[in-house]
Structure formats: C-alpha cells, structure tokens
Write a structure and sequence with these properties.
Elements (H helix, E strand, L loop, with lengths): L1 E2 H7 L5 H9 L3 E3 L2 E2 L6 E2 L5 E3 L2 E2 L7 E6 L28 E2 L7 E8 L2 H8 L7 E8 L4 H9 L12 E8 L4 E8 L6 H8 L4 E9 L2 E2 L8 E3 L2 H13 L4
Parallel strand pairs: 9-13
Antiparallel strand pairs: 1-4, 2-3, 2-5, 5-6, 7-9, 7-15, 8-9, 10-12, 10-13, 11-12, 13-14
Helix pairs in contact: 1-2
Amino acid sequence: MERLQKVIAAAGIASRRKAEQLISTGHVQVNGEVVTTMGIQVEPHDHVEVDGVPLATEQKRYFLLYKPRRVISSVHDEKGRKTVVDFFPKINERIYPIGRLDYNTSGLIILTNDGELANLLTHPSYRIEKQYAAKVEGIPTTDALKQLRTGVKLATKKTAPAKVKLLSSDRAKKTALVSLTIHEGMNHEVRDMLNAVGYPVNKLSRERYAFLTTESMTAGDSRPLQPQEVAALKKLARTGKIR
C-alpha cells in the first residue's frame, strides 16, 4: 500500500505537494468516492481518478524551458494568458512546471510529469541553487551587498544568506547588473530582497538552475533533459553532490 498523494505524484499528475492540495479540495476519487483526508493509503487494485480522469502510468518526460517574460508558470491560467505548458503542444503527457517564475521574470524552469523529481527539487530541505541576473535601479553599495550576503529581513521572515556579485554599473543611467544566487523558493524573493536593501528590480532572469544554464538558449527555447542530467538532479537534491 502507498499514500494516495504519492501515487498521484508517481502517475505524473502533479508534485506531491500539489497532489495534497488536489485531495484536500475534492478533486480526487478512490473507488468512486471523493477523498479529502490526508494519509489515505491505496493498493494497486484501487481505482483512482483525478477530476474524473483515471490514473495511468505515463512515460516520464523532462524538459528545460527558457521562459520568456509575460508567461505564466502554470498549467492553466484563468485569465487566458500564455503558460509554460503552451510551449509543448505536441507533448501528450500531462507535464507541469517545477516551482514558479514570476510573470515578468524570464529564465530557466523545468517541466516534467515526474512527481518524485518535483518533490525533491521543491522541498525546502533540499538546497538547490538558483542564480539570477537582476538589473536594478541605483548602484548597490558595499553595505547593501553585505546585507544580501548575510540575509535580509522581509515581511514574513529573514532570507538565507545569498551569493551576490556586482557584475556591472552604469553611473550615467544610475543602474546596475547584479548576480544573486539563492536556494530558497519564496514568491518574489529576489525582487523583495533587492527592494528591501533599496534597489528595485527593473529586469530579472534566472540564468542557472542547479548545474543547468541558459548557454546556447534564448527566451522561448526548450530542450529535453538528458537521462544523466535527471539522475544528477536527483542525486544533487538527495546528497548535495552530483557525483
């Protein structure tokens, strides 16, 4: 027997965390009955449906997308805006993005139907690095960069220390380009961190996700992840090492 949310994740419907949300909001049926209680265990012969669609074992698919700005990091958007899934019209499996990038943030995002990988890469205890390039208003001072490196107090919490580097500055335009690497995943975290130290973000891009980079890619490009890359991501999440 296995927990229901694990079975849903393994079938590629959603990450384990999202599967728990689907259960709690009444989207899941087991043997014809709606289940909303966490911790339910099911056996292989049990009939599980999500929104009326029976679970089926799908081929695991893995893609890396360089998300453009003004694209939603979701499977659907109630306002009809373009989503990251729209870049894969020929993929039959129900892939979904791991984590999110803001609507106006470009950069790397992984899409898959592998719930195990999604859980590994989004769980807060797994310290997967994400590197961003931010164009900010003003030129950050040494003290501001130090604050980012030691952690910034936001409305809800203090952020973990970030790796920060001032890449370039334009004193005439009073702007700068900052590289910032974090391993947390709070909504709008990078923008909020830079705004908190006095340097609002004009433009933001995620240029590295773990060891994956935007090299040879432009906004809108995508590619399948290689089996060795998937294995390395899982090992990195579990052990902190690729090899």
